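Internal tracking record. Fields below are filled automatically when a chain is submitted to the structure queue. Please do not edit lines marked as system-generated. If the sequence contains nonstandard residues, flag them in the REMARKS field before resubmitting.
Queue: standard
Priority: normal
Entity type: single polypeptide chain
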Amino acid sequence: MNNKTVSIVVPAYNAEKTIKRCLDSIVEQTSSNFKVYVVNDGSTDNTATILNDYKSDERFHIIHISNSGVSVARNKALELVDTDYVTFIDSDDYVDKNYLQDLIGGFVSEDIDMVATDRNYLNENLNLLVTLHYDFGIYNASDGINILLDENGPQGYITGKIFKTDIIKENNIILDPNIHVGEDLIFCIQYLLNARKINIVSSLQYNYIQYSDSLSHAATLYNREESFNEAYSNYLDMALKLKNMIPNKSKYYSCQRNINARIARICEAFLRTMHLNKDAIPIDKNLEKKLTKMMNFYKKDFYKSKLIGKKQKIYFWLLLNFPFFIYANDKKRFK
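SYSTEM-GENERATED OUTPUT FOLLOWS
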């Protein structure tokens, strides 16, 4: 059994309804060689009062900051982490008792730098929605990036994974506070760019609570709310940063293709939603600017034409690169 120490980072904002469940699940772990850094991100409810109950446990370190967002809260904890490993748990999620044991046990060889596991998805009433199983095994880092980019894999959630602290510290890997959707995917990929191998193990000890009002659920096909533009704008910020981050080297070519495909899906979904909800959602000029910036990565002669509007150019790019995807969904939606 790996006896190295692990830090658990828990950001908390107005989490009075869930934080006790989360922290109690950590206390009950079968592996006890851990520290917990709980960052109270300027909560205005009773979160701080509840956290006081855990001060008597010397493994718990309670940090209070003014409200700055989840990335700043996580980064604050990372500054203090001094253990061999670090993992993250969200304050509204909880873990079963073997969670740490299974994650740490995934470091079966020295060249494994990240361990990831499957998870349970529950709704707000803690009813099981789905259990996701992935392609378990040990992969090199570039294949690991592709696995995280795959929407059927463990994806870029910072939770459900464990990292080596020295890789984070030596490469100054932090969460980008300016990106609010996919910032953890960027963190994980930046980490893998400095890692050797990832081990994806079967555990099913992490319980992820899925809320209907989260920003990541705002970018859906039939969304008619103001959050639509914000959600897609954040998705594009994330995708464009990934595009710039992946090296232009042969071993990463497949990663670049997968990022291109993700950008295409974002833009296709934007167009699809705008078409279906054209009377309900005003066009956001800032979002159009970001879509245009995305197109600049792809040098096509027709982009120079003044006779073609911005959204038509995006559609043509999608048509050239993903014609089956366009036609398979709905042939009429761009008319």
